[in-house]
Design a protein that fits this description.
Elements: E1 5-10, H1 13-23, E2 27-29, E3 32-34, E4 38-42, E5 48-50, H2 53-56, E6 77-79, H3 84-95, E7 99-105, H4 110-122, E8 129-131, H5 139-147, E9 150-151, H6 156-184, H7 194-210, E10 215-222, E11 227-231, H8 244-254, E12 258-271, H9 279-290, H10 294-306, H11 326-335, H12 344-347, H13 385-401, E13 406-417, E14 420-431, E15 458-459, E16 469-471, E17 474-481, E18 488-489, H14 490-499, H15 507-512, H16 524-533, E19 537-540, E20 543-546, H17 548-556, H18 559-562, H19 564-578, H20 584-605, E21 614-619, E22 622-627, E23 630-636, E24 644-647, E25 651-654, E26 662-664, H21 678-687, E27 689-691, E28 695-699, E29 703-708, E30 718-721
Parallel strand pairs: 1-4, 1-7, 7-8, 14-15
Antiparallel strand pairs: 2-3, 3-4, 5-6, 8-9, 10-11, 10-17, 11-14, 12-13, 12-16, 13-14, 18-20, 19-20, 21-22, 23-24, 24-25, 25-26, 27-28, 28-29, 29-30
């Protein structure tokens, strides 16, 4: 150890205090804790960031196309005003004569590295740097991390990648947002990562809006001790008949006839246990099973990591463990809370951890291993209810991943009745294996998903063999309609972001995109929340929907910006920069060219689309937004018959000043109906009756009536009433009822 103390810089005060306790730093200083060999201080998240364009050059204060593109050779740094006092403390400690060197103890990832390096650079510090790299905040992990402290230059590639990511987002965001805002005279936020994510939501909305349901029928036959579903190899899906008439014809054909089993096959199936969690897979399960948003899951996991020391580093992209973690995992299982101990023996047969390439593989562990509980005895009663539920998911997944496989015998029986064939599926469990562990201790109440008519259940079958005969004792016909793609949720959007680009027609690109996708596990939750914040997406229950403004933005953006392949290539390039396999300047040159292209595209080639005008007036610290309505060409008001239908982000109205027609876009959604869109309204005005995936819409002189599919009880319908005459002053005119 060199003369003087080493300065440890943590990312947050709470983490700094934990490190100081382990290092024996007990003397309080100004924004720090001091010990014999170390001084521990901390940032408060980011203390330093990139300057705004107008802070670089006065000419960028006014938003004009003449000032674009903004492509400085170097983007200078600045101290964030709100936390300038803490930066001053950290900077003085870094450069103080008593400091021998600096230890970077920010989060062990790309963003944590950037936070430290920006502070170090802005402080103009030249002292030696070492790096603390840990995956757990337990005292033992911190002490072990300091024993294995690494030279800071080993992480130069990570910093170069982090800085490239930061500057790329700045260049694309500043240029594209200004260019498209100027082009459409509407405040538009455009980003390198958020725009491709929005494109996924827009694509799903369009798939649902363009979907047209088709009716079909499914026929089952009763053979006495088992039932079978009609199928034909010539159909797709093979068990659907086009309508009731065709189903009745088949039923009449087989009525009272004798069937013969022409195939009876049993295959033994082996189902491997699920893998350990990385952050994205945890966020997906927490959304599906617990109803947590991706952002909420990340915050809970971070709290369990930092505050309770109950989980390992959450912002990981790996689902594997290195071999040297095997003894630690065994120790962790023995230290799990009492509620999990009855499950431990099956995960540790003969006291040993059953290892496979699905769980332990050093080649698939990058910065951090899979997310698991720490080897520390914790009391879940000390957690909040949501923290407890999330910890339960991770603890059960650790056990499940090392349980034996689930084994069952799957039987398929095909019964021929004349020219028609019927299929029966059966299942017999041979070994329960990992399915003996339920996914959560107390699964939340969920509305049961309505089964589609053609779903074939696996049942317990009687002893059957080829050649056996049975009489057809009866038939049953079930009618249904095809259903649109499901709305995206946090879980399914995260999965889509993770898979983005893998279905590319270019095989080389599709192969490259494996392990990449849109964003990183650490940033995806923030991307989703950002889309909601800027008005491009909205939550409706668990569903995430693109707004009209979001749809319009994707319509005007070039495909190069909204493409998952583009952002996936960038993420791959950033990974290569981290590993020293790509020149950072080459990457940034490409980003500068792309930023200039976006400006040219917005100015000269972007399509003519009308965004609602936004007038922002700041008064008393508040912002008021006035939105003007867009007229829909060719749409005559259904109430007055004179004015033109207009659209705002929330509702449709009439251009005639004396008409009070108002139709709120979400007026039917609470009753299970569709959100009203321009395309749907145009169709309704033309056809008067529209049958969709959720039900039937009828346009009358004074209302829209929505009747859900299958509804027959009185009161099942929901109506949206128009206003035909002005209401008394002081009341809201035209509100749907």
């Amino acid at each position: 150890m060199a003369e003087g103390r080493w300065l440890v810089v943590a990312e947050k005060p709470s983490v700094g205090r934990d490190i100081a306790r382990v290092l024996g730093c007990r003397e309080r200083g100004d924004g720090c804790l001091i010990g014999a060999d170390y001084t521990v201080t901390w940032a408060v998240g980011h203390l330093v960031t990139l300057k705004e364009p107008d802070e670089i050059d006065e000419r960028y204060k006014k938003w004009t196309f003449a000032a674009l593109p903004i492509l400085p050779e170097e983007i200078p740094l600045k101290v964030i005003r709100q936390t300038a006092s803490q930066f001053k403390i950290v900077s003085a400690l870094m450069n103080g004569p008593e400091t021998a060197g600096v230890i970077c103890a920010t989060d062990a990832g790309r963003e944590g590295e950037l936070i430290f390096r920006y502070i170090y650079t802005m402080a103009k510090c030249v002292k030696p740097v070492r790096r603390l790299w840990i995956s757990s905040m337990t005292d033992e992990a911190i002490a072990e991390g300091f024993r294995a402290i690494r030279p800071g230059e080993e992480y130069d590639g990570l910093y170069r990648s982090a800085r490239c990511r930061s500057e790329a987002d700045w260049l694309v965001g500043m240029n594209a947002s200004r260019a498209f805002t100027l082009r459409y005279d509407s405040l538009l936020s455009v980003g390198r990562v958020q725009t491709p994510t929005l494109a996924l939501l827009v694509r799903r909305r369009q798939e649902i809006e363009q979907f047209r349901p088709e009716s079909y029928a499914v026929l089952t036959a009763d053979f006495g001790d088992y039932r079978g579903t009609w199928f034909s190899a010539d159909r797709t899906p093979d068990n659907r008949l086009k309508d009731r008439a065709e189903a009745e014809a088949v039923a009449a054909r087989v009525k009272g006839r004798r069937g013969t089993i022409v195939r009876c096959e049993t295959q033994r199936k082996h189902v491997q246990p699920p893998q350990l969690y990385d952050l994205t897979s945890l966020q997906r399960d927490a959304n599906s099973l617990l109803g947590f948003t991706a952002d909420k899951t990340l915050k809970l996991a971070q709290s369990l990591y930092e505050k309770h020391k109950a989980l390992t580093y959450p912002r990981t992209d790996s689902r594997y463990l290195p071999p040297d973690m095997i003894p630690r995992v065994v120790q962790t299982m023995h230290l799990l809370p009492d509620a999990y101990q009855p499950m431990v023996p099956s995960a540790l047969p003969d006291g040993k951890l059953p290892v496979s390439k699905r769980t332990v593989d050093a080649s698939k562990v990058s910065d951090h291993h899979a997310l698991i509980p720490t080897a520390r005895r914790v009391n879940p009663a000390d957690f909040s209810p949501d923290e407890r539920a999330l910890y339960d998911l991770v603890a059960r997944r650790l056990l499940t991943a090392f349980y034996p496989e689930h084994i069952y015998d799957g039987t398929t029986v095909v019964t021929a009745v004349g020219e028609d064939t019927f299929r029966t599926r059966g299942r017999v469990t041979v070994q329960e294996g990992w399915r003996a562990i339920p996914p959560t201790e107390k699964p939340p109440k969920k509305t049961a998903r309505k089964k589609e008519a053609d779903e074939e259940e696996e049942t317990v079958l009687p002893p059957l063999k080829q050649g056996d005969e049975r009489d057809v004792r009866g038939t049953q016909i079930r009618e249904d309609q095809t259903r649109p793609p499901a709305q995206l949720t946090d879980a399914s959007l995260l999965a889509a972001m993770e898979r983005a680009g893998r279905d590319s027609d270019d095989r080389e690109i599709a192969e490259q995109m494996k392990g990449s996708g849109i964003g990183t596990p650490a940033t995806r939750a923030a991307i989703i929340e950002r889309l909601i914040q800027v008005g491009y997406a909205q939550r409706r229950g668990k569903n995430l929907l693109a707004t009209d403004k979001g749809v319009q933005l994707i319509a005007v953006c070039p495909p190069e910006l909204s493409s998952a392949e583009t952002t996936g290539r960038w993420e791959l390039a950033l990974d290569r920069i981290t590993r020293g396999e790509q020149d950072p300047e080459r990457f940034m040159d490409g980003i500068r060219r792309f930023s200039a292209f976006l400006v040219d595209y917005a100015r000269d080639r972007s399509p003519a689309v009308s965004f609602p005008e936004e007038e922002r007036k700041g008064k008393g610290g508040r912002t008021r937004v006035t939105v003007s309505a867009k007229k829909l060409d060719g749409c005559v008001c259904p109430v007055c018959g004179k004015g033109q239908v207009t659209e705002t982000p929330l509702a449709f109205g009439c251009s005639a000043k004396d008409c009070r027609f108002t139709l709120w876009k979400d007026g039917l959604t609470r009753g299970g109906g569709p959100a009203m869109t321009e395309a749907l309204l145009r169709l309704l005005l033309k056809e008067k009756t529209v049958r969709g995936s959720t039900g039937v819409l009828q346009l009358t002189q004074d209302r829209i009536l929505f009747t859900p599919n299958g509804a027959s009880a009185p009161g099942a319908s929901r109506s949206l009433i128009y206003e035909k005459t002005p209401k008394p002053a002081g009341k809201q005119n035209g509100s749907p009822k």
